[in-house]
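Internal ticket #5521
Category: modeling
Description: The requester needs a full-assembly model to guide mutagenesis choices. All entity lines are attached below as received. Residue total reported by intake: 1112.
Assigned to: D.W.
Attached entities:
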Amino acid sequence: MSQATLTRRGFLKSTAAMGAVAALGISAADSLTAVDPAHADEASDVKIYKTSCRACIASCAVLAHVRDGRVVKIEGNPESPMSQGGVCAKGLAGIQALYHPNRNKYPMRRVGERGGNQWERISWADALTEVATKINEISDKYGSEAISVSTGGGGNPHFSNVKRFGEAINTPNVWEPGCSQCYLPRMGASLLAYGAGKPNNLSFSDSNGWDYYYTDSPVTSLVLWGTDPSNSSVATGGRALAELRCRPQGLRTVVIDPRYTLDAAKAEVWLPIRPGTDAALLLTWTRWILENEKYDEEFCRTWTNMPYLINPETRLTLKATEAGLPGTDEDYVIWDPASNAPVVVTYPFNEGVAAPLFGTYEVNGMQCPTGGQLLKESCEEWTLEKGAEICWLDADQIERALEIYTDPNGQSGIMQGVCIDQYVQSQQCALGALNLEFLMGNVEKPGTMLQKFAPAPCKDQLGNTPRLLSKEKVLKRCGTIEHKGILCWDMAHIPSVFKAMKDGDPYQIHMWIERSGNKHVVLGNSSCLDEIVPKLDYVVQCFMYPTAFSVLCADLLLPTTEWLETNLTIPQLNTIVMRQAVTHLFETVEEGIIWTQIVQKCAELGNEHCPKAFDEAACMTTPFYKNEYEKQKQHLNKLEMSWDEACEQGVIQWATPEEYRTYQTYLADDPENPGKPKGFGTPSKKLEVYCESNIILGRTGAPWSQCAEEKPLVLPPASADYEPLCYYVEPAESPLTDTEYPLVLTEGRLPMYHHGTLRNIPYLREIYPVPEMWIHPADAEKYGIADGQWVNIESRRGKTHGMAHVTTAIAKGVVYQERFWAPELLDSDDPAQAYKVMNINVLTKNDPPYNPEYGTYTLRGFQVKVSPSDDEILDSVWVRPEQFQPWMPAPSDATEDVFDYGA
Amino acid sequence: MARNCIVVNLDRCTGCFGCEVACKMENGVALGERWSKVLTVGPVGEYPNMTRYALPTMCQQCESAPCVSVCPTGASYRDEKTGIVLVDKEKCIGCKYCMMACPYGVRSWNTAERCVEKCTLCGHLTSQDKVPACVKSCAAGARFYGDLDDPSSAAAQELAKYDDADIHTLQDAGNNPATRYIMTSMIGQWQERVEPKGHPHTAAYPMAE
């Protein structure tokens, strides 16, 4: 294998550097000149492959046109019931990502110091041996928990398999910057309170809300709470809303967002909420619904735990044994007003008992409130006026929104966006929004957001193997005794992992294997990596192209595949959309194959834990696949066809829409208790408005704590109880008290980028070359900022820049900017500027307070100040379209896969 | 003569810029050049009565096309068969009169070939009964192609769903643009003309004086 050393200016010039390789016979130009003209004509037929995009998580069905082994065109595939032939800018630019001249093409080993950006090409065999040797050495010397593994949602991940990899190499310290800051809180709250959540929850942009993809859905109104499907799921969720709005009956919408997004602009009511105060508005809504008796009383009585009495001593539902009633410690108790006495609940509900939802009753010498009473007390102070004051809203507009949401002649639903996952009140907001839906009876009815439609026979996520880890290892997982909610995803708490890396507290982490691109762009307060990485012995990064993390941190780079080189099955409503590799370039390898190859190499070199990953008995679930063939089989799961057959169909309808849309599954007969309805997946089979499961989670880790020896594994309690009901706390940095940093910052999606990706795509960067910082004209005047001007944005963590966009599309007192980085600065004398110059995550906050349940840190709703900027570094940022020319695609011929297919 | 054009339903449009990229990929349009561009209009008005929308623009296929009448060489012309305004790049001498005459700023200078280009309604596709690339892949299903005078065309059928009051054109200075925009009161008030601003994404179509 040839050794090519890239110089300091390596990445931008990598086309030239690889020119040397090309001269050996794999250059695109060389192979074309060698083709006989007659043969070229014959070979120029275009073959169209049905595949699916992964420029973002929506995974829209596309048609890839391939000529002579090269992808020449991408179109939408109209067969998908979600994207219906649409594809957004990100997907259409997939060719530019695939053939980017700066793709990571081969395994590369760092030469010289970190940050020096000098690399030598090595073989995959050498790379695997090096990584596996390090894993085994560090595991033997310090314990396998001294290795940390991370991933992220951007850049074509094989998401759940990174956890599988961590468990296979015996480390509990797997994490990703989303998780506690993206999706887990909404999913976790739903699992606890609704008894379902994977994926049945209120996140529309994570491809839930399935009924809304059918225009015959009886939905009449929707509340978009901190979500902007037009930006975050353009061709799926954005398209669905467009279809619903354009029905003859239309769709009334309420948008709660500091930004006047294009979704807000189409809404009947826009509530430009102050970032960080969602819980206050949720409590205001709850109080108004209770006070105005808009809730569905019969549903609440029968299907929620609102009438259940609560034991004031345990804070949990009162049980028959505690009430002195005949029954067990699993029997719940309600108040019977007819007999003026407590009675045991007869599931699903005692016939003829008009148990009160509210009130406090004396039972066995205790004053026992109902769950509903505690809900009522939790929102008592939250009048419309108080909510309006705290949230910077107009009380009349809040009431207008509520009238739409509670219209007795309509069917509404709440779509809750990622904003609430991004600050300390993540779990509180998730529980608060679910309670609104429960109160209104918006559960599994035609037209509701919460649904349990029939599951697809295939799997996009293979699931992980938490029971591969021993109790000893699980107890060493950083930060999860205090923040047990993270165990829902079997991950670790990022600030706690970083503490271990930086301070050796409670033990030193020595090695980091990372896959997601640019951690500097997606982590809160990402400059903290400057102090952390020097403490690490060895850092591996797997990605498609170099990032700031590659240059500043990595010791070894492993090249991963783009989505056009990847295989996966994707459930979309009543269909499965196939993703198939339509080409393969250089020596890239799909991430999931990298993981299994490393584990196999570790085992081969004597690691005693790794072989268990391939042993079904040890995994107590499906074991790790060893190759692409086995991986495909696991993804196909119950779909009875070969991979090739599935790809040939491209979009496979496994059920009719009618078979798929199964409403009110909780009313179905319970096979375990014939004659009784199945109920919900909570311990009580009821919706937990009073979410005692949250308290139990904090005290024990149930229902998510498990290990090789025990399931459930009972953990020591967190330092304080997790609260069962939503409550409001003012953000730690608050505009009400902060005089030095007067503006509140919020972030939010752009339609042409996803997470930290795609800032190196010429046709996307020319549309949106630098991040806009939206500021209200009143604030712009106050701080001397003109439209189109570079500004400094500073927080207590650091300073960065943005391009001012002076607009009334942002609430007064709030500024908005999305994550960004400048790949063009990787080759500069100061490569750290690639992530620092215009990256909002230099400002965000990863210190306490954290969300109790998930340890969520603060990415939105903290304080900044702004000023005009003439910093010299800004001259180095590419803003003019022609500057992106070096990144225009350099198509090349397909190459053989690196590792054996396996069958 | 047929009035082939694109109809955009702004009630559907999400402002994703997909049409810009679809156009560039399909037609190999260079960096810095655009045949199709998405503008953002607004916000105008005071809370809570504000209007903001994305406005995708492209050649509006004017009936009295100023670009055709000012062209000294006949490079800008109307195709007799399809009725589409096109540029014959062989005849273009690069005087840019047409760019100045176009009321909507939707003609594009091809730096490499030193000639003017613009949206061709993807003639290479529509001549094979396919739809323009931007229409095919529109993420919101907001774009429709066809002859306004043919009631069976997708463009005419979409327009037929709406009242005249909800159907708009860019400001007509007697050039009679064919392209129609559907926008209802759900979004707010159609803006006849928005003053261009310095910022690339808040600028609306520049108007010829």
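Resolution: model delivered.
Comment from assignee: Strands of chain B lie at 4-9, 37-44, 51-57, 76-78, 85-87, 108-110, 115-117, 143-147, 167-168, 180-182.
Ticket closed.
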